[in-house]
């Protein structure tokens, strides 16, 4: 029997901070038997829905609106494949590019890239975000004056141990950290710096190993950093940094993710236009690059692991590509399927048909 997976596609629109050609959140069906991708359809109109996440129960999908006056929008999911806007809220920051649905189910936490702030939004009984109950601002800069003139919060995660949140700041080369108590009216506690990466590294996204180790993609220095996070002190120690690709120059890592068994780490490399595969040691302390696989597209901004495949959003070629993952080696092979669609920048696997 054919098994299809629904993919929600975050996209750039003509009015978003980075101009694109989409009209909102897009919908694509992925056949996991044949690796075929269906024709893309508009799931919901929106401005700059560049990053999308689901509620735990899959009844809602949330998107940032990557605009100068940032917003976050909730979409109700109907019949597993239809989106209807349920409401939105200002973030109080500019150009939000990443968000976290907190596992306690009470808050969205948004990384506002433009001004470096982090906004905390309570969810109302219908699951719609309210205006920020807190905004965490920051100061600082890095040596790359073209990209690091100030703080740029690029992503946010639940830290190992579950009691703190980590903010990856491209502008200041830091991992910012704060305690988070979801039952409190003001859930975010005082902010501190958990780790300082190499000047000019430009950390973007991270992946978290079950051992508590972190793997951070340095967008500006094209390296992957390995850190050990201590939940007791909420501090992280850098253990290693390795090249993100074998390509020589002009490469800007983006998404980074672990395989389900944590044996492999995958990194999207924009410029080299590859997915790099790393071997991960059993204790999570070491990584070793095994291969660089072309994505079959240009500027792979994001990808998702879907039933033995990597589905890649290639921003500049305006394509989704499918790379089959070898079950034994964990290394993806050449693209076996390609779909043209307007400016995809995020892939969110959803329902199974």
TrEMBL record:
GO MF, any single term: 6-phosphogluconolactonase activity
Superkingdom of the organism of origin: Bacteria
Similarity remark: Belongs to the cycloisomerase 2 family.
SUPFAM superfamilies cross-referenced by the UniProt entry: Nitrous oxide reductase, N-terminal domain (SSF50974)
Native source species: Thermobifida fusca TM51
Protein name: Secreted protein
């Amino acid at each position: 029997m054919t098994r299809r997976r629904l993919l929600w596609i975050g996209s750039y629109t003509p009015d978003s901070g980075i101009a694109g050609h989409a009209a909102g959140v897009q919908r694509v069906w992925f056949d996991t038997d044949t690796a075929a991708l269906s024709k893309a359809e508009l799931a919901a109109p929106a401005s700059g829905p560049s990053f999308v996440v689901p509620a735990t129960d899959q009844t809602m999908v949330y998107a940032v609106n990557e605009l100068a006056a940032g917003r976050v929008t909730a979409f109700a999911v109907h019949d597993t494949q239809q989106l209807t806007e349920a409401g939105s809220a200002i973030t109080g920051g500019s150009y939000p590019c990443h968000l976290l649905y907190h596992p306690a189910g009470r808050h969205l936490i948004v990384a506002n890239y433009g001004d470096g702030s982090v906004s905390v939004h309570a969810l109302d009984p219908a699951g719609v975000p309210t205006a920020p109950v807190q905004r965490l601002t920051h100061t600082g800069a890095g040596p790359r004056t073209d990209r690091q003139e100030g703080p740029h919060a690029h992503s946010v995660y639940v830290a190992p141990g579950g009691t703190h949140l980590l903010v990856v700041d491209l502008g200041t080369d830091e991992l910012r950290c704060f305690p988070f108590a979801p039952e409190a009216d003001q859930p975010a506690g005082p902010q501190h710096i958990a780790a300082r990466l190499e000047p000019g590294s430009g950390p973007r996204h991270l992946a978290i190993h079950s051992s508590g180790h972190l793997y951070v993609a340095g967008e500006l220095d094209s390296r992957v950093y390995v850190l050990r996070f201590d939940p007791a002190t909420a501090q992280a120690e850098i253990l290693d940094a390795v090249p993100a690709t074998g390509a020589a120059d002009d490469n800007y890592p983006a998404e980074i993710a672990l395989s389900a068994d944590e044996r492999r780490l995958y990194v999207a490399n924009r410029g080299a236009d590859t997915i790099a595969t790393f071997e991960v040691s059993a204790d999570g302390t070491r990584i070793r690059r095994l291969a660089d696989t072309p994505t079959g597209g240009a500027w792979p901004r994001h990808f998702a692991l879907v039933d033995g495949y990597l589905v890649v959003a290639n921003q500049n070629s305006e394509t989704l590509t499918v790379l089959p993952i070898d079950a034994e080696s964990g290394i993806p092979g050449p693209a076996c399927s390609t779909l043209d669609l307007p400016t995809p920048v995020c892939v969110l696997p959803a329902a199974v048909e």
